Amino acid sequence: MRIVVLAGGIGGARFLRGLKRAVPDADVTVIGNTGDDIHLHGLKVCPDLDTVMYTLGGGINEEQGWGRADETFHVKEELAAYGVGPDWFTLGDRDFATHIVRTQMIGAGYPLSAVTEALCDRWKPGVRLIPMTDDRVETHVVVELDGERRAVHFQEYWVRLRASVPARAVVPIGAEQAKPAPGVLEAVAEADVILFPPSNPVVSIGTILAVPGIREAVAGAGAPVVGLSPIVGDAPVRGMADKVLAAIGVEATAAAVAEHYGPELLDGWLVDTVDAAAVERVEAAGIRCRAVPLMMTDVEAAAAMAREALALAEEVRGA
Ligand code: FO1
Asked: Which residues cross the membrane (predicted)?
């Protein structure tokens, strides 16, 4: 079975680990969000690609959900001693090596998709991980800061400001001019199932869909498209989905997120059992919906969610 997953960071990575447990022999292609990417210290950092790669490759810091396990921070300390920031974004020594290799390869002329493949040669994530695009896309968030409107990099909004200031708009800079990376459209066209994990619908999956051609390919794919709600009981399971949903005028509920994607994209939608009352509203929007447990408390719980998503895809296919 060929499965395509559009993934952001922690939620996407943990879901993928469950999917691998549920269907170990499936051929899984992950289209990763690169809108969170940031250039720091002359290095290109790709948080979502790395979170997927480290999580599936066994190198992730499990408590944090991002960055490397058994990490040290000597480089960061030395930079700070020189007065070089930013002090609000933490790169560990082991993680630095990934960004050095990536930046060196890009400097030598390799596209990000080829670099990601090379990094995955080491980590063996057991999936084919492709960035949504080889072009530079950077998500900026328009915030209200000290009475003024200002656009900040997504990482500054999320990590430095901790999403504590109102977000007025989310802009994936460069997305309109970007092209899908090689293999993206082919994987979508050849998929048997397409899944939206419980990743952020605006800054993760929304950014991937903003690359011209990807939304159209998903909407026009022969395969059933099934998503899992990142909102449980009217609050995001993790992260700031509620804040960025507000910025685009979508309420932070499981049903509203399904309607936001719409029946053009989604054939099926899973909500948590606490949101069972939303099933009727989602089905009224033309999207088949089921209520199942959606808390990824461990790998087995994530695997159970993946099985439910695949079962719903089968149901939709048979309908
Ligand atoms: N998240 C934080 O909350 N603080 C950090 O300092 C931080 C650094 C960081 C470095 C590398 C990396 O791959 C991820 C990192 N993250 C950090 C996570 C990241 O900000 C976000 O969770 C994702 O971009 C959202 O998917």
From this structure: none
243 assigned to some structural domain: yes
Confidence of residue 285 (pLDDT cuts 50, 70, 90): very high
| Residue 25 annotated as binding site | no
Confidence at residue 234, expressed as pLDDT on a 0 to 100 scale: 81
Check: CB of residue 7 under 8 Å from CB of residue 48. yes
Please report the atom of ligand 1 found closest to the CA of residue 200. Answer: 26
Examine residue 151 and state whether it is found in any structural domain, yes or no: no
How many other C-beta atoms are found inside a 10 Å radius of the C-beta of residue 251? 14
Confidence bin at 182 (pLDDT 50/70/90): very high
pLDDT of res. 319 = 78
Q: Which residues line ligand 1 (CB under 6 A)?
A: 8-9, 36, 45, 47-48, 50-51, 66-67, 89-91, 95, 155, 158-159
Domain count, the chain: 1
**Choice from 100, 159, 161, 237 to test ligand 1 binding pocket (greatest atom count within 8 A of CB):** 159
User: What range defines the domain where residue 310 resides?
Assistant: 2-35+128-134+176-318
Q: How far is the CA of 44 from the centre of ligand 1 (A)?
A: 13
Instruction: List, for residues 13-37, the tens digit of each pLDDT value.
Output: 999 999 999 999 999 999 999 999 9
Report the nearest-CA residue for atom 14 of ligand 1: 47
Residue 255's pLDDT is what?
97
Q: Whose CA is nearest to atom 4 of ligand 1?
A: 159
**Is 91 part of a structural domain of the chain?**
no
- Rounded to the nearest whole angstrom, what is the distance from the C-alpha of residue 81 to the centroid of ligand 1? 22
Look at residue 18 in the predicted model and tell me its pLDDT: 98
pTM (two decimals)? 0.97
Among the listed residues 46, 35, 44, 47, the one whose alpha carbon sits nearest the alpha carbon of residue 207: 35
Domain assignment present for residue 313? The answer is yes
CATH at 232: 3.40.50.10680
